[in-house]
Amino acid sequence: MDKSMQQQNMNIEELKAAYRSGELDVNTFLKTKLAQAKSDTSNVWISTISEQQLEQMLTLLESKSIDELPLYGVPFAAKDNIDFAMLPTTAGCEAYSFQPTESSSVVKLLIEAGAIPLGKTNLDQFATGLVGVRSPWGAVNNSFDPEYVSGGSSSGSAVAVATGQVSFSLGTDTAGSGRVPAALNNIVGMKATKGLISCTGVVPACKSLDCVTIFANSTSEVNLVLDIAAELDTDDCYSRDNLQTNSAAHYDVNKTLAGLKVGLPEASQLSFFGDHGAQALFESSVERLKAAGAEIITINFQPFLDAAKLLYEGPWVAERYAAIEAFFKADPTQCLPVIQTIVGGATTHSAVDTFIAMYRLQAFKVQCDAILAELDCVLTPTAGTAYRIKDVEADPIQLNSNLGYYTNFMNLLDYAAVALPAGLLPSGLPFGITLFGPAFSDRMLLSVGAQWQKIIDFTLGATEHKLSDIELSLSSEAKAGQVDIAVCG
Amino acid sequence: MDKSMQQQNMNIEELKAAYRSGELDVNTFLKTKLAQAKSDTSNVWISTISEQQLEQMLTLLESKSIDELPLYGVPFAAKDNIDFAMLPTTAGCEAYSFQPTESSSVVKLLIEAGAIPLGKTNLDQFATGLVGVRSPWGAVNNSFDPEYVSGGSSSGSAVAVATGQVSFSLGTDTAGSGRVPAALNNIVGMKATKGLISCTGVVPACKSLDCVTIFANSTSEVNLVLDIAAELDTDDCYSRDNLQTNSAAHYDVNKTLAGLKVGLPEASQLSFFGDHGAQALFESSVERLKAAGAEIITINFQPFLDAAKLLYEGPWVAERYAAIEAFFKADPTQCLPVIQTIVGGATTHSAVDTFIAMYRLQAFKVQCDAILAELDCVLTPTAGTAYRIKDVEADPIQLNSNLGYYTNFMNLLDYAAVALPAGLLPSGLPFGITLFGPAFSDRMLLSVGAQWQKIIDFTLGATEHKLSDIELSLSSEAKAGQVDIAVCG
Q: Checking phi first, is residue A461 left (phi over 0); if not, alpha (psi -120 to 50) or beta?
């Protein structure tokens, strides 16, 4: 395999520029990337397409021009609870596996836009977990240190991006599954407003809360993929039309942070689970935002934490049971023991409990909404610390729960959130921050995220590339393009 | 008692005009109305204020001018599941009864606007029923024929208005309780958008669905009362701020019906339960709207009916249990047998059932919303027929269910609805129509309702008054007012 292609900068615009200039041949490149995926040793993939299937897709691409397809020849990965017609859907459970007759709505849209799915990625079984170790296909290794968890449940999708195997990937997120693994692998993870991306053809976790999420190295790429992926779908009863004020055009790569009102939990409400390095990195993140002009406003984080508690202590786990009821009833032992425990516990909750919990959630939401109404967004860590795989195996429930401290409330409260890289801990593991806001604040969050990525100007994922290099090369290409036009015109 | 005062036209603007002109003395008049309420023989009231309590309120009124209080000296009634600090709240169950320390938010707002609550009205116990016979205080008699049911559960409140005992009244509505009794007593019943009127201080039925409703003789009076009653309340987690486009100023008493797109269920989806008179009256109502310029568009009503079925067959009954759990558990036999059966059945539903039912509801809502999106509003009967009390006593569940055929889906689907009088059946009982639309279409619906009331120009409630007489007298007063200004100016 061509090592330089394996280490190719995977930025979507860079790739397209390289295809256009002839620096890269799309067929050769994608065959190399598929071979690279097939030789992955981090447990990223559950299945990959065959060389023949890739040929089929490349043939389809031949009749199209790079200018008409915004994701022309861009390799991506889909979490294995998202249907893709060429491969089975396992949801991380061999016995549950089925061959979908068609792709999920979101995968269809991305393929139509020219993107090439190389395969299906490993996950915490039935998307139940934030660790990335709850899989019969093995724990996904963190892209920075294989002894550490990758985060989950969209573990393989995050590591596929972080290790440069694909340009972007799809995850799902019910309680943090699209954000925690982004943080632990130094990439961007977007849990867009519930309903913007259709869940048709996605195995539900908690159907009323589930979101399809996007992993990429930059907010600009997330913005582009979200633009293609977000389409109203009447087959998904939770699908919602986007607001005009939240369209891709409202992504502003040059947004100023001056005067941006950023909420920050009271110090006593933050938890780093003893990780002083993480705490220091978070505090310096706050200072960097402040230095960029943001107004940091201390908020009461308690109602958010109270809402979060409802998710795991309350009746929502019944949604996980409802999602796989027939399969689970037939033989619960086909699931991993930890999943049996969690999903099996769902049947103890009554309808009365459920409504009472919904009233409590609604009351918390009123409090949280009132806090958000005074702000542009809220800043938190994405995960308070990073854990070793062996530590999680020794204490699987508590450490999993710790990883969701800043993420569990988001879907319940119907908020949008973007997880952003924020540097490395003394351990060498990545640390991330999250910005969140009300539903339909996606593009505002991505715009703030773009500034944040400029501020930190950090390497992307586990690669040596930087966003500033990419922007430089793109801007010279853009300049070259302008000169061309000037000459022709 | 002064018979002429008992038969006084109770229209709010008429009353205020009569106070202003000195034709009526507010103290004398309200004392007469209280005496009239105390001598009611239709089982309208569970409790009324004392003469001393009335004196207290009249004293408070003395320091205020009629011009600063939009409901100055206007007598009203509150359903006895809505707290009013001067009287106990029973919810139709003596054993449950308690003395509230303060009035509900809505009663406070009305009193602040000058309205005088004469008492608390009879209801189907715990607002569970659409018949008005499920009460230890006796079946509320229909205002047209005491052998017939008044409709429920806001039975007393509807009959109090229909019989001219008060100008307006408050009900509650979870499944039709604020509309069915309006239809059966020839008055207007408004189930405004969920959350516009606070439920703080209201005994819940199904807390996620409950609405406080308004009964009056005209859409103009409903518009005025709604304007005062609708205020965001952070103590009610389901409270919602009104949209500017749905403010009282958007009530248009001269709205044209030309081109109004009115949905009409397919004929096979309408049910009159064998009542050919009701069917004929509904058909002539459609023709009258058509003659007024409305465009009648046949719609598929099935998804609305399917959503309705979820309410009584699904887990929402668990909300009724949750509302009175401690009381009910302690001794269910303190409730009427029919309430024991209904509420007691709630504990069989699981959290899993609940979430599955919510998914089904959400799927129906997508279908119903798509139908509404093509229309201004939908027209249905309010109740397909009227029943005798003895018939309901013989078959209490089925006939109650029949009365909810056109109302049960409304709150589940988050729609606004206004029930309007539509004439008399051959039996001499009133028949009503309902117009409904999406959340926040309240003022549009009331505006269409205003035209409808002009078209039918029918007597109000069980009185001999007509809206056309009132408007005549008001417009002469308005003219007189204009002349005054002209003279002064």
A: left
CB contacts under 8 A, A 230-249 vs B, are 234, 237-239
Alpha helices in A173-301 (DSSP H): 180-183, 219-229, 276-291
Q: Do A355 and B234 touch (CB under 8 A)?
A: no
Nearest-angstrom CA–CA distance, A14 and B38: 84
**Cβ neighbours, 10 Å, residue B151:** 36
Alpha helices in B193-275 (DSSP H): 219-229
For every residue of A137-169, DSSP letters joined together read: T-PPBPSS-TTBB--SSSHHHHHHHHTTS-SEE
Asked if residue B78 lies in contact with residue B197, where contact means CB atoms within 8 angstroms, the answer is: no
Any chain B CB within 8 A of the CB of A98? no
Residues 6+ apart with CB under 8 A from A274: A385
CA distances to A31, A53, A160, A226 from A85, in Å: 20, 11, 20, 21
The count of CB pairs under 8 A between chains A and B is: 87
Quick check: A464 and A217 in contact, CB under 8 A?
A: no
A355, B319: Cβ pair inside 8 Å?
A: yes
Q: Report DSSP letters for B375-424, one per residue.
A: -SEEEEESSS---BHHHHHHSHHHHHHHHTTTTTHHHHTTEEEEEEEEEE
Place of tokens 């507010």: B26
User: Could you tell me which of B83, B362, B418 has the C-alpha nearest to residue B221?
Assistant: B418
Question: Could you list the active site residues of A?
Answer: 79, 153, 177
Measured in degrees and rounded to the nearest 5, phi and psi for residue A201 equal: 85, 20
- Each residue's pLDDT expressed in tens, for chain B with a length of 489 residues: 577 888 899 999 999 999 999 999 999 999 999 999 999 999 999 999 999 999 999 999 999 999 999 999 999 999 999 999 999 999 999 999 999 999 999 999 999 999 999 999 999 999 999 999 999 999 999 999 999 999 999 999 999 999 999 999 999 999 999 999 999 999 999 999 999 999 999 999 999 999 999 999 999 999 999 999 999 999 999 999 999 999 999 999 999 999 999 999 999 999 999 999 999 999 999 999 999 999 999 999 999 999 999 987 899 999 999 999 999 999 999 999 999 999 999 999 999 999 999 999 999 999 999 999 999 999 999 999 999 999 999 999 999 999 999 999 999 999 999 999 999 999 999 999 999 999 999 999 999 999 999 999 999 999 999 998 876 555 544 444 443 433 333
State the Cα–Cα distance between residues A480 and A486, nearest whole angstrom: 10
Residue B295 pairs in a beta bridge with: B261
- Tokens of residue A150, six digits: 């990758």
| Count of beta carbons in the 10 Å neighbourhood of residue A53 | 17
> Which ipTM value was assigned to this complex?
0.94
* Tokens describing residue A194: 């519930």
- Those of residues 338-377 in B touching chain A at CB distance below 8 A are 346-347, 349-356, 358-359, 362-363, 365-366, 370
* pTM for this predicted structure: 0.94
Handedness of CA B255, B259, B260, B266 (dihedral sign): positive
**Is B219 in contact with B188 (CB distance < 8 Å)?**
yes
- CA end-to-end distance (rounded Å), chain A: 43
Check: CB of residue A34 under 8 Å from CB of residue A51: yes
